[in-house]
Design brief:
This protein is mainly beta. It is built from 5 helices and 18 strands. It folds into 3 domains: 31 residues, no CATH class; 97 residues, Carboxypeptidase-like, regulatory domain (Immunoglobulin-like), CATH 2.60.40; 230 residues, no CATH class.
């Protein structure tokens, strides 16, 4: 008996991802997409919005199910900083690298991303607006990739006392030491609380009856209690709140964020505009989505913050001295005892708003390690200094 191809969905796929219903699983449509030539339109600007015309654009396009077969594509933007790259049928764009030319007075940071980021492998036509910021004045900063515990579930073997509200509501209140780039005890080894971080997670229910049935089935089979299944299968709203207590201190959401670049935020912290409390919410519903540069800032991870801390004010309440810092890519990792992670950078020079980090000089690492100890290698996004 010949069944329609679009109905041949593995049972395991449906159990693991109920959202992939039969009506949405159109194999024929996907075949048409893969069999079509692909186009990727790029519009390249610097951080000031000016076209970048002297960049070198390199793309890799892989053939589907070919064991790694690919074509290499090299392009140059036109006088408007724009170009269209093309890949043959049955290929999809996978990796994009853009390097600035050497004709300008200031060099550029390199742009790098792949299909795990913002390039849609299966898109017949995709258009991206990207920023290639200049390298202006990198300086040594105190930097640390910090993790802070956020409990979502009281486990049967949990040694910590039960947290009230779990699993439908979870809240963590964490004090943070800006100069030492880490949380105060018991979340870290910080000494002085410059501001508080409040993480809240609220259970909103299940996406649909099939998702709820999967959660209950998991609990009925003894894989784990229903509280654990809620965390795995449920829909949640997470809220990240910053609160400052010292007069003049505050935070501001970065107006720009470049997730594909080592310099992910503007070079300098703003002089004004800081607020004493700021919240950012994010919805989680266990549905996989392709990242999109137009909408990626709806998640915490694709955002950054500038901070003004340890401010000194005059009798009129005006800030006369302060230190500046930045937070890059806050995100939740893990599941039941989640960890809030981010990269934190602090400028120890008062009134210096420059936060363009020299990746070869970490002042926090140098202060806590012998001079002969080499700084650990840095990956594309995060600084890991233990």
């Amino acid at each position: 008996m010949n069944l329609p191809l679009q109905r041949l969905i593995p049972l395991g796929t449906l159990l693991l991802c109920p959202a992939m219903g039969l009506a949405e699983y159109d194999v024929q449509k996907m075949r048409q997409i893969y069999a079509s030539p692909k186009e990727l339109g790029l519009r390249i600007r610097d951080e000031n919005g000016k076209p970048v015309t002297d960049a070198s654009v390199h793309l890799l396009a892989f053939r589907l199910n070919s064991g790694g077969r690919y074509v290499s594509i090299n392009e140059k933007p036109d006088d408007h900083g724009e170009l269209v790259a093309r890949a043959p049928a049955f290929y999809g764009f996978d990796k994009l690298t853009i390097r600035g030319g050497k004709q300008t007075a200031l060099p550029y940071y390199t742009l790098s991303t792949d299909n795990h980021g913002f390039i849609q492998y299966a898109a017949v036509r995709q258009d991206l607006d990207v920023t290639l910021p200049h390298i202006v004045k990198p300086i040594p900063l105190r930097a640390l990739d910090q993790g802070m515990l956020h409990r979502r579930f009281n486990g049967p073997n949990d040694k910590l006392p039960p947290a009230l509200g779990l699993p439908d509501f979870a809240e963590s209140i964490i004090g943070f030491d800006a100069e030492n780039c880490q949380a105060v005890e018991p979340f870290g080894r910080g000494k002085t609380t410059d501001f508080y971080v409040v993480i809240q997670s609220v259970f909103r229910g299940y996406k649909d009856s099939l998702t709820e049935a999967s959660a209950r089935n998991r609990a009925d089979r003894g894989v784990g209690p229903i509280e654990e299944s809620k965390v795995i299968h449920g829909s949640w709203t997470h809220t990240l709140t910053f609160r400052f207590i010292n007069p003049g201190d505050g935070i501001i959401l970065s107006p720009q964020f470049w997730p594909y670049c080592r310099l992910q935020m503007p070079h300098q912290a703003p002089a004004e505009g800081y607020v004493a409390e700021l919240s950012l919410s994010m919805e989680e519903d266990q549905v996989a989505r392709q990242l999109d540069l137009k909408t990626c800032r709806r998640t915490w991870e694709h955002n950054g913050f500038f901070l003004r801390v340890r401010s000194q004010v005059d009798q009129d309440g005006q800030v006369v001295a302060a230190h500046y810092a930045k937070i890059v890519s806050p995100h939740l990792t893990g599941m039941f005892k989640q960890v809030l992670r981010w990269s934190f950078f602090y400028n120890p020079t008062a009134n210096d708003r420059n936060l363009e980090y020299d990746f070869k000089r970490n002042l926090l690492w140098e202060a806590n390690n012998p001079a002969s100890t080499p700084i650990p290698p840095l990956d594309h996004h995060h600084i890991t200094i233990n």
